[in-house]
């Protein structure tokens, strides 16, 4: 895992061009499946099963990459593709863009046949974390951001049903229609953190929304704990909506207190589509007309709302 925090907020990206899938031999299918399974970052967040892997193997198309081509450039905000290397070799390089003087780009390693790259920006809405250049003529399998999200990041039916139970435990989502709840459940990815881990830090750009389904976390502002959030068998809690709603940095750090904290994560794009106006949502009646007498949000959730 190379660092999962995103730093890009704001507007929606234009759709990436999707090309027609290319035929694959049995060996090529095996190589792609293994590459997906071996991508540690991808596996932290996407619960990859044979069905998802099979679907991805099916849609990928082939591209030939001449020696010297940079397929990915560090810092690019528009991230459209994820790649699996069929043959050839790629160099990973990074420049320390934080320093005033331009530091020479350092080669950090290489990616060979059976490797993959480009997942980080797609998973976390982050700028591209490194530059990836072909050091020899290469052949890659490619998939576009939308396919990557639809096929790998969407929960399967069993996961949806499981996520739905948690959605039901979070009073916040009560005003949603059943179909909206299901869409939300489908867009959720499980992410587990261990004690003392930081889910995110104050000042970061927020790219994800969290529902805490198990465990307890501390909300820390300017180094001081301001509150704790704890999931109980009856109640799941959400956090991380404010930075997304208001497109501003995280107002607090979330640190795990329990041995394990289990969360369901919704990325910024899905959040905007599905929960775009949480504030409005809290005012919307069960009938979805927008006319409601009392806030639909439970007091405990209301206390957290708009704070992180
Ligand atoms: P991306 O979408 O950010 C660049 O685009 C890709 O390079 C990235 O996804 C990874 O797939 C891949 N640090 C960051 N990105 C890396 C690294 C890396 N290695 C491969 N990628 N590091 C390891 C260097 C050997 C540095 C870790 C500190």
Automatic annotation (TrEMBL):
Q: Which GO terms describe its cellular component?
A: cAMP-dependent protein kinase complex; cytosol
Q: Which GO terms describe its molecular function?
A: ATP binding; protein kinase activity
Give the record's keywords alphabetically.
ATP-binding, Nucleotide-binding
Q: Which domain of life is it from?
A: Eukaryota
ATP-binding found in the keyword field? yes
The residue ranges of the Cyclic nucleotide-binding domain are: 44-157, 172-284
The molecule here is called: Egl-4 protein
Q: Which gene encodes it?
A: egl-4
Q: What range of the parent protein does this fragment cover?
A: 126 to 433 of 526
């Amino acid at each position: 895992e190379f660092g999962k925090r995103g730093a890009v907020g704001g507007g929606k990206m234009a759709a990436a061009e999707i090309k027609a899938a290319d035929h694959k031999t049995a060996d090529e299918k095996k190589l792609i499946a293994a590459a997906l399974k071996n991508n540690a970052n991808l596996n932290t967040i996407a619960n990859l099963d044979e069905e998802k892997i099979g679907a991805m193997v099916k849609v990928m198309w082939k591209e030939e990459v001449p020696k010297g081509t940079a397929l990915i450039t560090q810092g690019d905000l528009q991230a459209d593709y994820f790649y699996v290397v069929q043959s050839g070799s790629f160099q990973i390089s990074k420049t320390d863009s934080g320093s005033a003087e331009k530091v020479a780009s350092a080669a950090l390693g290489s990616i060979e046949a059976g490797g993959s790259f480009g997942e980080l920006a797609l998973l976390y809405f982050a700028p591209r974390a490194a530059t990836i250049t072909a050091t020899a003529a290469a052949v890659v399998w490619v998939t576009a951001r939308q396919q990557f999200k639809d096929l790998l990041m969407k929960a399967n039916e069993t996961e949806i049903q499981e996520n739905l139970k948690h959605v039901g435990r979070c009073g916040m989502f009560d005003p949603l229609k059943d179909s909206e709840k299901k869409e939300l459940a489908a867009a959720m990815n499980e992410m587990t953190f261990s004690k003392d881990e930081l889910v995110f830090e104050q000042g970061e750009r927020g790219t994800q929304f969290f529902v805490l389904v198990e465990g307890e976390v501390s909300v820390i502002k300017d180094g001081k704990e301001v509150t704790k959030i704890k999931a109980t068998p009856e109640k799941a809690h959400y956090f991380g909506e404010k930075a997304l709603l208001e497109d501003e940095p995280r107002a607090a750090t979330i640190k795990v207190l329990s041995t394990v904290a289990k969360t369901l994560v919704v990325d910024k794009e899905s959040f905007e589509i599905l929960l775009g106006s949480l504030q409005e949502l809290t005012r919307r009646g069960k009938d979805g007309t927008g006319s409601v007498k009392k806030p639909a949000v439970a007091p405990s959730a209301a206390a957290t709302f708009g704070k992180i």
